[in-house]
Amino acid sequence: MRAAGEPKLSSGSDNSWQTLSLVLPFFKQYRWQLFIGFLSLLAVNGLQLVIPRIIKHAIDGLQQAGASSEVLMQYGFMIVGLALFIAIFRFGWRFMILGFSRHLEKDLRNWLFSHLLTLDRVFFQRRTTGEIMALATNDLAAVQLAGGMGLVAFADALVLSVAALSFMAYIHPGLTLIAIVPMPVLALLTRFLSRRLHRYFKKVQEQFSRLTQFVRTSINSIRMIKAYTMEKNQTKRFDVMGREYVQDNLRLAKVQGTLFPVSGFIANTSMLLVLLFGGRLTIQGSITIGDFVAFTSYLFMLTWPMMALGWVTNLFQRGVTSLQRIKNVLDEQPVIISPSEPVQVPEKLNSIVVRNLTFTYPDQNDAILQDISLEINWGILGIVGRTGSGKTTLSHLLARLYPVENDTLFWNIIDVNKLDLAEVRRRIALVPQDVTVFSDTVRDNISMGKPDANREEIETVARAAAIHDEILALPEGYDTRIGERGVKLSGGQRQRIALARALLSDRQVLIIDDGLSAVDMETEHQIIGAMQPFVRDRICIIVSHRLAPLAQADRLIVMDRGKIASQGDHEQLLRKSRFYATIYEYQTNRLGKV
Ligand SMILES: Nc1ncnc2c1ncn2[C@@H]1O[C@H](COP(=O)(O)OP(=O)(O)O)[C@@H](O)[C@H]1O
Ligand SMILES: [Mg+2]
User: Fold this and answer.
1) What is the pLDDT of residues 211-221, one digit of tens each?
2) 387 touches ligand 1 (CB under 6 Å)
3) For residue 389, which atom of ligand 1 is closest to its CA?
4) Pocket of ligand 1 contains residue 365 by CB under 6 Å
């Protein structure tokens, strides 16, 4: 178990192994597929290595007396036959191993997605959507590449180089030693360059995530951009970011671009050495011409694995970095967790009690709520207060979206931290200010929390939310599709649909956090009145910036700078709270004048 606040390990080799252990189960799961794949790969390599031997025999045979074209034909057919098998096995390994890497990618993606859904707001506050999207695209792709082509190239390079070296040594050990002199230089250079590659690659990835995030926020706030005619400005900023992305990519390309030619150059130095020394050996008659040709063929075969090594190291490094990033998210635990032995949630919830609750957002210093004490009973509790006074924060804590200290929040008389979290959340319906309506029919949107609700139930809650008539006026009534390519609803209509959804879901706690802000005052008044029968034996908390509709609430609290400034019913507050009285008068008078 990871203790809270334990420092993250810096990237060392231990860490890489830890990271790799993440994908180990997948290797086990797909072991047969991998086995067949690598066997095919081995077969391809084996067959490829035989071809230079055949060429050697053909060439050596040419020099001997009695060489006939039939014998040559035979060799020719042998090579063609081998090539056919090579083709078949090549298909085999590609299909198996690249198939494996696709499965690996899919499984990791599913894991990541389902894990993301378990995390709470605390996590999503820290990570931008762009970061998460980059993880699900770039990073997964890098892992897939490493687990597919990377693995293949590595196995291929290993087998080919060992085999080629053995054959070369068999022909002439001394010449082999001379031929591989430049190889360590190649390895060192690769290492040096691949480190750089690694660093630039990371930069590219980060910049890409910034770009995605920028597009996302721009599209989300398109109206604001238009209203402030910020199109040019945004485009300019996007252009700057795009340029940086190109710069980063170009730097990456420069290093990548040097890696291959330089490797090729070094590999060719080997060839030069072989031509010099091997040629002399052939002339001296120490090796046959056939041996000499076969030797250069093997050396040629060795070139690719040596170059591949650089590429593969880089691929693996990218893969591990990406996997590390994915692992970091998979290691995240929801901040609010259920106790291992939860107390049964009370069948009937009579009261929610807040006792000396002080709250600071994660990773922040200043307490946003200070010493809140409050008892909430059946009926409606109204919360009012200036913007930033902590109303949303309090309603989110009551909705169990952020963690609370022990002994600060009670259901009946039980500390909520002792209750099963999922069960608690099943008892709560939250209507936030910016509600989500799915591109689905109105009916399905309302009945989300209770899919088996019948028509009458749906219409009852729609009436209570004062949206029934407007739904009937839509082209297809309750069957009208909302959203993409469907009917667009106004903010107030969406809020009322969300309210109807909450009412239908029949929870014991209903929290409306400014969820009627886009509804006009008359309608809000009407809605709160119509909700009374629904909340008679339930707890309903309504945050609103308009006081008149809330006057019907059973109880009201006025929040000010994270504290409860005063509480009571409407009449009491008119006398007690200057803030309440002033705002109430201001709002009602202004309404009177309009
Ligand atoms: N997720 C958050 N992280 C950090 N601070 C926050 C967060 N949400 C709100 N705050 C801060 O908490 C204070 C109260 O905000 P909020 O509860 O939204 O007030 P209200 O709903 O009354 O307008 C504000 O100062 C705001 O800046
Ligand atoms: Mg708010």
Assistant:
1) 988 998 899 88
2) yes
3) 22
4) no
Separation of CA 124 and ligand 1 centre (Å): 15
Of 260, 326, 261, 421, the residue nearest 111 (C-alpha): 326
CA dihedral 43, 49, 50, 55 (to 10 degrees): 150
Does residue 388 line the site of ligand 1, with CB under 6 A? yes
- Please give the distance, rounded to the nearest whole angstrom, from the Cα atom of residue 393 to the centre of ligand 1: 6
Q: Is 165 helix (H, G, I), strand (E, B) or coil?
A: helix
Q: What are phi and psi of 209, to 5 degrees?
A: -65, -35
The residue type at 503: L
Q: Do domains 349-427+511-594 and 432-506 have the same CATH topology?
A: yes
pLDDT score recorded for residue 12: 41
Q: What SS3 class is residue 11?
A: coil
Distance 489 CA to ligand 1 centre (A): 28
What sign results for the dihedral spanned by CA atoms 147, 153, 159, 161?
A: negative
Report the candidate in 389, 427, 456, 393 with the shortest Cα–Cα distance to residue 540: 427
Please state the CATH superfamily assignment of the domain spanning residues 104-331 in this structure.
Answer: ABC transporter type 1, transmembrane domain (1.20.1560.10)
The pTM for the full model equals 0.73
What does each C-alpha distance from 246 to 140, 213, 239, 252, 478 come to in angstroms? 22, 17, 10, 10, 50
Is the C-beta atom of 393 inside 6 A of ligand 1? yes
Q: What is the dihedral angle through the alpha carbons of 61, 64, 65, 70, rounded to the nearest 10 degrees?
A: 10
Nearest to 418, CA basis, from 334, 344, 335, 509: 344
Alpha-carbon distance values, 191 to 187, 259, 317 (Å): 6, 10, 11
Q: What is the CA(401)–ligand 2 centre distance, in A?
A: 14
Smallest-distance ligand from the CA of 359: 1
Smallest CA separation from ligand 1 atom 5, residue: 361
**Residue 575: per-residue pLDDT:** 93
Give me the residue label for tokens 């910020």.
Answer: 230
Burial 512-550 (b: 16+ CB within 10 A, else e): bbbbbbbbebebbbbbbeebeebbeebbbbbbbebbbbb
Number of H helices, E strands in the chain: 24, 10
Return the amino acid letter for 442.
V
pLDDT at 189: 80
391 lines ligand 1 (CB under 6 A): yes
Determine if ligand 1 sits within 6 Å of the CB of residue 362: no
For residue 389 and ligand 1, the question of a CB distance below 6 A is answered with: yes
Task: Determine how many CB atoms are found less than 10 A away from the CB of residue 262.
Answer: 17
* Ligand 1 neighbour 390 (Cβ under 6 A): yes
What ranges do the domains of the chain cover? 104-331, 349-427+511-594, 432-506
- The amino acid occupying position 356 is N
Pocket test for ligand 1, best of 392, 402, 512 (most atoms within 8 A of CB): 392
Q: Who's near 450: CB < 8 A, 6+ residues apart?
A: 457, 504, 505, 506
pLDDT at 10: 38
For residues 350 and 509, what is the distance between their CA atoms, to the nearest angstrom?
Answer: 10
CATH class of 432-506: alpha beta
Residues 6+ apart with CB under 8 A from 10: none
CATH class, range 349-427+511-594 = alpha beta
Cα R_g (the chain), whole angstroms: 36
The list of the chain residues with pLDDT below 50 reads: 1-13, 593-594
